[in-house]
């Protein structure tokens, strides 16, 4: 459920009419709903009611400071994967003891910054990383709290580019080698073992792969405890999918996911951490764009928008589907045209949808891409020297620009021409 509904025939974000935002800041832009963000975060938090837990929002999905602050004020922790994300979490006021640091390639500089600034745990993904973290912690005279990310060799049954839990993926330590690596970790004076971490992939639409992974984590918890390790935290990653197409079978709800966690791991006496990203913010955001031209090709009708693949990469990168809706509500039964919806970038891959049935649209009409809040703005670039797409946050009847569109001068001023030219 989200808070983007038609009122009097006009699409609104909560109580704000989308055309009012477009008139103020121009298009394209991302717009997020505070009420939807809040609701989705709480669904996860409540799903784990009764267990000690921390919901660490995976900020790679959308990392604007205003979004982080909104979630942080609700009690969210953060899952970060780079020094930049760590800096964002801190700038949004998230205390270090609510930040977990994931990622296969943490640098020593990133480790040092997090140890100095405060960190709940590092999710360590390899033995060389373990050794590096030990050295950095010792150089600071401290111990680094860790979980080890195990790769459970489970098929997440999702798009190959976002599956992470099979042995052929680069992530984690093979679960078969976990006991040896925990023994190695326990012997390092700069390391404090806290728990186990697992994340099997993104946009999961079925609980079965989670069950398989969580059962393996449960067995490993028992084995590691028998080996003498103190396992007090289980980080179960993120990945719960969202409905991208209205009317299609919906993925499991956070409540069902929470019940599965309780069923499989609830008796371990561990604090549970989860790292949802997409489900928190995906349906809390729209990308709003204007039609530049509608043109007829030999046998296709093209709708050329002012948003492009650089603003929303998911269709070009994963063949992802996003519902596209006119901001003025179509009259029921109106004739539809099968448009190829494209952007202005000079690549055929700059195609959002092929043969998408939409009412006839004209230049300056507004359209909205649904489910664009996650992996939308964060994956945007300035390809074709198109300014980075701005972001807006709505709360009730107010809206604020939370990232402004850069001017051409700002873009040009980032470059420097060397003195010899
Ligand atoms: N934790 C870890 C360690 C992750 O790698 C990820 C996502 C998450 C949590 C959050 O997963 P989520 O709840 O958002 O599914 N750009 C792709 C998605 C990449 C996901 C990467 N890792 C897309 O647009 O579909």
TrEMBL record:
Quaternary structure (record): Homodimer.
Binding site for substrate: 278, 314, 318, 347, 375
UniProt-annotated catalytic positions: 346 (proton donor)
HAMAP family, per the entry: LysA
Binding site residues for pyridoxal 5'-phosphate: 239, 275-278, 375
Domain of life, per lineage: Bacteria
Any Pfam family matching the protein: Orn_DAP_Arg_deC
Biological source species: Pseudooceanicola nanhaiensis
Cofactor dependence: pyridoxal 5'-phosphate
Similarity field: Belongs to the Orn/Lys/Arg decarboxylase class-II family. LysA subfamily.
Keyword Transcription: no
Domain Orn/DAP/Arg decarboxylase 2 N-terminal: start-end pairs: 35-281
Protein name: Diaminopimelate decarboxylase
InterPro entries assigned to the protein according to its UniProt record, in alphabetical order: Ala_racemase/Decarboxylase_C, DAP_deCOOHase_LysA, De-COase2_C, De-COase2_N, Orn/DAP/Arg_de-COase, PLP-binding_barrel
Underlying gene: lysA
NCBIfam families recorded: lysA (TIGR01048)
Modified residues (N6-(pyridoxal phosphate)lysine): 60
Pathway membership, UniProt: Amino-acid biosynthesis; L-lysine biosynthesis via DAP pathway; L-lysine from DL-2,6-diaminopimelate: step 1/1
CDD domains documented for this protein: PLPDE_III_DapDC (cd06828)
